[in-house]
Amino acid sequence: MTDAVEFVGVSRHFGPVRAVDGVDLAIAEGSFFAMLGPSGSGKTTCLRLISGFEKPTGGQIRIFGEESARVPPNLRNVNTVFQDYALFPHMNVRDNVAYGLMVKGVPRAARAARAEEMLSLVKLDGYGDRRPAQLSGGQRQRVALARALVNEPRVLLLDEPLGALDLKLREAMQDELKALQKRLGITFVFVTHDQGEALSMADRVAVFSDGKVAQVGTPEEVYGRPRTRFVADFVGSSNVLPPDVTQRLGGPARWSSLRPESLRLAAAEGAALAGTVTALRYLGAGTRVVIDGNGAELAVLVPAGQALPAVGARIGLAFDPAMLHVMDDA
Amino acid sequence: MGLRPVTLPERGPGDRLTSLFWRRPNLLLVLLLAPPLLWLGVVYLGSLAALLLQSFFSIDEFSGLVVHEFTLKTYLELLRPSNFDILLRTVGMAVAVTLGCAVIAFPIAHYAARYARGQWKAAFYLGVMLPLWSSYLVKVYAWKLILSKEGIVTWATDAAGASAVLNAVLALPVIGGNSLSTSYIGTWIVFVYVWLPYMILPMQAALERVPASMLEASADLGATRAQTFRTVILPLALPGVIAGSIFTFSLTLGDYIIPQIIGSSRLFIGQAVYTLQGTAGNIPLAAAFAVVPIAVMLAYLAVARRMGAFDAL
Known about the structure:
The complex is a heterodimer of chains A (330) and B (313).
Chain A: E1 5-14, E2 17-27, E3 32-36, H1 43-51, E4 58-63, E5 66-67, E6 78-81, H2 93-97, H3 99-102, H4 108-121, H5 137-149, E7 155-159, H6 167-184, E8 187-192, H7 195-201, E9 204-209, E10 212-217, H8 219-224, H9 229-234, E11 239-241, H10 243-248, E12 256-258, E13 263-266, E14 273-282, E15 286-293, E16 296-303, E17 314-319, E18 325-326
Parallel strand pairs in A: 3-8, 3-9, 6-7, 7-8
Antiparallel strand pairs in A: 1-2, 1-4, 4-5, 9-10, 11-12, 12-18, 13-17, 14-15, 14-17, 15-16
Helix pairs in contact in A: 4-5
Chain B: H1 13-23, H2 25-55, E1 58-59, E2 66-67, H3 73-78, H4 81-114, H5 119-133, H6 136-147, H7 152-159, H8 163-170, H9 184-208, H10 212-220, H11 225-254, H12 258-261, H13 269-277, H14 283-306
Antiparallel strand pairs in B: 1-2
Helix pairs in contact in B: 1-2, 2-14, 4-9, 4-11, 5-9, 9-11, 10-11, 11-14, 13-14
């Protein structure tokens, strides 16, 4: 099966800035693919390379096997949900949703009917006559989604679409987007800097760093078996252990990672890892205990209801050796 | 550590005034607005009302004195063919100048709003504003020389072997003439030149407020450049275009110097007002003439509003 989107050695340099630098990617048809990374890591530029708003300075991008270098955005059967939604303020919701059909010359009645269908798909029946300014952030988000889906794109691109929503709405939209993607079977490519969002929604995640892909894999792989220090730290803020500590804990002389939830508090005597508690951060479902162990900072997630040490107390850490993950970094 | 005061002492008149304005928020507003409102209300609207009043008086044909009685006779005077021609000529020129300005200004404003950054943006503002720094009369007389029969335009078209084209243009009925400087074409060129900055600046401000993502969204959904222009850029930039056209339109309606220096010596509204209130001493008719641009502008704004030009404001 051909991949929905394929990057072969793709670069996009802006003068001396290498926004995207030699990226190879394959996004399978029908998958929910997340591009995860901090701001400036090249993920949004990659999305814009797929939609055609950026041209690669090197390499090839193929969409369903077709080389896209000479195809302008309006002829790509790929649609985008923009970060700021980019709804047209001078049109009502129905005309916004039907815009893609209008520019294709679909007659007014047919496109109005289709727009209503799309609006009911995103649970906004009856909102057709309103202006975007009269909608809440979550509703605008849905209109942007309906507008992008009206052309039945082969690939739907989403640029941080949930960034502007509050937490509760964001979680509800995550579930809805996931369900919608399953139902429509369209390939979704999703850009986010929120690792929780990427892990909970995507089938596969690409972690970006400095214009390069640091790791591609399932959420379980990226979270549980990070390949580099960057991935371990960025995805789930893991404890990154230098080679000497890894060795002390029974591993090879390489960098390794240990998830905060894999660690347990224990008595200081006889523990392989021990240190002084420097801070406690209450997170609701648990408390993150930060420990200074001979210069290495370690975080432990203590589930709610368990006894907490005091700041300044000396404490030991216990863990299952199987959870110690050795990384590729030398 | 000593105890720090809960309330800090007032240091001087600045703090006392700030406290006063904080306790009485409306006071500052009144102080700020009173002078301009007095100016606008008394000097500006007052004289406009006086003008309107004058237009309802008439002139006694024998004595040449103003009859202070309400009448619509003066307005009927406007409909006499010789006067009505002046109105049509002026409004027609204003429409042509506005269209010309809009067509020339759009690419410049679009470039400035979308692409110009840093030094290029500064160069744009300087380039647009620079002509406004030199005297209006100097510019108009310079244009008279440029457009005259012995001027550089005739010389350049001759040198390029295109004098047949220039002659054909000048041979056009009504808008043509002996030379560019004595034709309506010349008047139009100079009007467009002089008012162009007033179209570019509001247009650029309006185009700058259209986010780039909106244009990308349009292309993303399959629109061609022309469709994006028609359905997204133009409607969103329309308030700016209207604002610019209000300037070019009303400035042309009221100008009496350009048509006097460059053109076919037929009268425009401004010139008619000038002659009527001066040598002819017919203040009521001059006032009636002066009311026409106001009425035309009000009608224009009403139409623009009906068309939704201000919806995006």
